[in-house]
Design goal:
Layout lengths: L4 H9 L1 H8 L14 E10 L12 H6 L13 H16 L22 E8 L8 E8 L8 E6 L10 H11 L2 E5 L7 E3 L4 E3 L5 E3 L13 H9 L4 E3 H4 L8 H19 L15 E7 L1 H12 L7 E5 L14 E4 L2 E4 L5 H15 L16 H14 L8 H15 L9 H6 L2 H14 L10 E5 L11 H10 L9 E7 L2 E4 L15 H13 L1 H9 L11 E6 L11 H12 L5 E6 L12 H4 L5 H18 L7 E3 L33 E2 L3 E4 L2
Parallel strand pairs: 4-5, 4-10, 10-11, 11-17, 12-21, 17-18, 18-19
Antiparallel strand pairs: 1-2, 2-3, 3-5, 6-7, 6-9, 7-8, 12-13, 14-15, 15-16, 20-21
InterPro entries: AB_hydrolase_fold, OHBut_olig_hydro_put
Organism: Emcibacter nanhaiensis
GO molecular function: hydroxybutyrate-dimer hydrolase activity
């Protein structure tokens, strides 16, 4: 049955009675509530029919179908927001089509619904101004005699529901409890003029003294800024003045403790049974992208032995390569020194050069034709860079080829260029560079770094008031990054505040994809001490304490590039730990960062779903922990493109396209000889 808000409140009030009933009258060990938690956790039980933990009652067919509709768009219920949130997060991260393999080759089989209990609670982390949200899901098939818990920090800046479709889709049907967290990012937004924010359920509420995941202190500077810019929006990750990424590992460790607390309070075995703790619960640290970084960082910091194993996909890691001697990676005829370039550093490099490099790329590259400003805008970016001495060449094409050559020499793989049209079209690089530079430097919304701000824009790019019905569901539909759901980076020009990518360069009058902001942020990345401090705070040691671990990464990843991320992390771990390392690295030839793009035929023809290998890696780790099965050696997975017929039809994904992770990979094995990582071409 679908829980109403009243029902949710009633369940929260009766949590104590639920705990008493679960003990069936027997004595239970005393349960200590973590001191970090704020208030009382809310609870809902989903019967797996009308509503459930994994699909919010939609089932596989619902996830594949149209957007769920609201009874009253201006007053959505908690359950309607939850359903929308799960729907959009699933479809943003996973190819949910049958043709793409969902429900056949990966993901839950059948309806996909999972009955069980869901608990939501907020907490604090020492050193952070803003709270963290945790969610613990306990399926009905949870095995109290052989308990397991899987961590699920959200990817990107997503909400606490962000990893339901990735980690939850494997763990819940397996019978494992799942410890989710939004990592103190989440869909934290404050609409400055109205003082509106979101609570932990995603409801739009008035800013007050009540604890919510994000609200700014009412300083005089903020009041003045909001009065002058009432349509601007503050974003938690960018504007909280917390560099929360430095604590994402600690937050994951705390989510495990919260999971133990919930299990012991409400799901404890009868008298004589084991208490749920690090000695009795199998804990796998997991997730993808930023969530993958968070779980790896948690394992690096886990001095209490909470984590048994790690399985992550395309983690946004920042390996501390300076902590070891020179290390390189070789693939085919290529070799690159792994110098520890961090996410913000290489993102800024790509942000400056890629729009220019795009000009000389094939015209049929997916989404290239839809890039705003067209080829003229790309050529103008090349001209602006040439005027700054950053690219060479007499013509726009020459300058574009020089930009491309610089990226290749820097370490950006040719394989990732398939995704370049999407990257420029979606403005992903201005988004991450602006967001992370502000976060690392601990800048506030009123600092208006590099002249950019955040606000809703019209179809023509003008700053406008965000429609009320869109505010109500933005928690559900947003990625937690900007641009998203018609909220964009904006800057001021002679025409007023407008979408940043549509403002002319004040130096030469060209519309060039906002080279001005890109170069300003690049200067901060290279020279701002505050930003540099923030970047160093998030470095990875790659010391996993000898725990068994798997990293999966796609060679075509155009966001978290393999040379700077997983290849470097794996090499650093091997260089430090040698034979004591139990880290395994599986690189997917046609894998990339956004599986959901494969729902578009142009991408489906060429890409392999990362989620297939993420689940396979979790299965391998499970068999390793439970049965002692050896983990396969590190290897390249030589996936096959599906192709497209002349009519534009892409055949369904089949097992033949997706070779299994092999116990004996032969020539596909990835090796490390002490100072060089060798990856098959």
């Amino acid at each position: 049955m679908i829980m109403t808000l009243t029902r949710l409140k009633l369940m929260s009030v009766t949590l104590a009675s639920l705990a008493a009933l679960s003990a069936c009258g027997t004595e239970k060990a005393e349960v200590q509530k973590p001191a970090s938690l704020i208030g009382t956790e809310t609870h809902a039980y989903y019967d797996g029919s009308d509503n459930d933990l994994l699909t919010a009652g939609l089932g596989t067919a619902g996830l594949q179908g149209p957007e769920p509709q609201l009874a009253d768009p201006l007053n959505p219920t908690v359950e309607e927001i939850r359903r929308l949130t799960i729907y959009f997060n699933f479809r943003a991260l996973v190819d949910v089509t049958d043709a793409g393999g969902y429900g056949r080759l990966y993901g839950p089989k059948g309806e996909g619904k999972v009955a069980g209990h869901e608990y939501l609670v907020m907490g604090t982390i020492d050193g952070l101004k803003q709270p963290v949200t945790y969610m613990i899901q306990v399926p009905d098939n949870f095995d109290k005699n052989d308990p397991c818990l899987v961590t699920a920090p959200s990817s990107g800046g997503r909400s606490v529901f962000g990893a339901v479709g990735t980690v939850g889709s494997w763990a819940l049907p397996k019978g494992c409890a799942v410890a989710y967290t939004d990592k103190a990012t989440g869909i934290g937004m404050q609409f400055l003029g109205e003082g509106l924010v979101y609570d932990m359920h995603g409801r739009l509420v008035k800013k007050s003294d009540a604890p919510v995941p994000f609200q700014l202190d009412e300083t005089e500077a903020l009041k003045a800024y909001a009065a002058e810019n009432p349509l601007h929006i503050a974003l938690k990750h960018a504007h909280s003045r917390d560099n929360s990424m430095k604590d994402w590992g600690r937050i994951v460790l705390e989510s495990i403790r919260v999971g133990f607390y919930i299990l012991n309070k409400y799901h404890q075995p009868e008298q004589g049974g084991k208490v749920y703790d690090k000695d009795t619960v199998t804990v796998i640290a997991s997730s993808i992208s930023n969530g993958g970084y968070s779980s790896l960082k948690a394992a690096e910091q886990d001095g209490d032995g909470l984590i048994d194993a790690i399985v992550v996909s395309e983690p946004n890691v920042s390996p501390d390569m300076a902590s070891v001697g020179p290390v390189s990676v070789a693939w085919g005829a290529n070799e690159l020194a792994l110098n520890g370039a961090q996410f913000l550093e290489y993102s800024s490099k790509v942000n400056v050069l890629l729009a220019c490099a795009m000009l000389s790329e094939p015209r049929d590259l997916p989404l290239r034709a839809y890039i705003p400003l067209g080829d003229a805008g790309l050529a103008n970016r090349c001209q602006t860079l040439a005027e700054k001495g950053l690219v060479k060449g007499d013509t726009a094409e020459d300058r574009s080829r020089d930009a491309r050559a610089q990226l290749r020499a820097y370490g950006v793989l040719e394989d990732s260029s398939l995704m370049d049209g999407f990257s420029v079209f979606s403005e992903i690089w201005p988004a991450v560079v602006g967001d992370y530079a502000m976060a690392f430097g601990r800048y506030g919304v009123e600092d208006q770094l590099c002249g950019v701000a955040i606000g809703a824009t019209s179809k023509t790019g003008q700053l406008e008031d965000y429609p009320a019905e869109r505010k109500q569901v933005n928690f559900a539909k947003s990625t937690g990054m900007i641009p998203s759901n018609d909220i964009n980076w904006v800057k001021k020009s002679d025409a007023g505040w407008q979408r940043a990518q549509f403002t002319p360069n004040p130096e030469n009058g060209l519309f060039d994809h906002d080279a001005t902001s890109a170069l300003c942020f690049d200067g901060l990345v290279q020279q701002d001490p505050a930003v540099a401090t923030g970047m160093e705070e998030v470095r990875n040691s790659a010391d996993l304490g000898g725990r068994p671990a798997i990293i999966v990464h796609g060679r075509r990843d155009s966001l978290i590039h393999v040379n700077f991320a997983s290849r470097s992390y794996y090499a650093l771990n091997k260089a430090k730990k040698g034979d004591a390392s139990d880290l395994h690295y599986y690189e997917v030839r046609n894998g990339q960062h956004f599986d959901a793009l494969s729902m578009l035929p142009a991408f489906a023809a060429k890409l392999a779903p990362m989620h297939y290998y993420f689940e396979q890696s979790l299965d391998l780790m499970w068999d390793h922990l439970k049965k002692g099965a050896p983990l396969p050696p590190s290897q390249l997975l030589d996936t096959k493109e599906r192709g497209m017929d002349p009519a534009g039809t892409v055949p369904p994904l089949a097992a033949d396209h997706m070779p299994a992770i092999a116990a004996a990979p032969g020539k596909m094995e990835i090796t490390f000889d002490g100072d060089r990582l060798t990856v098959p071409e």
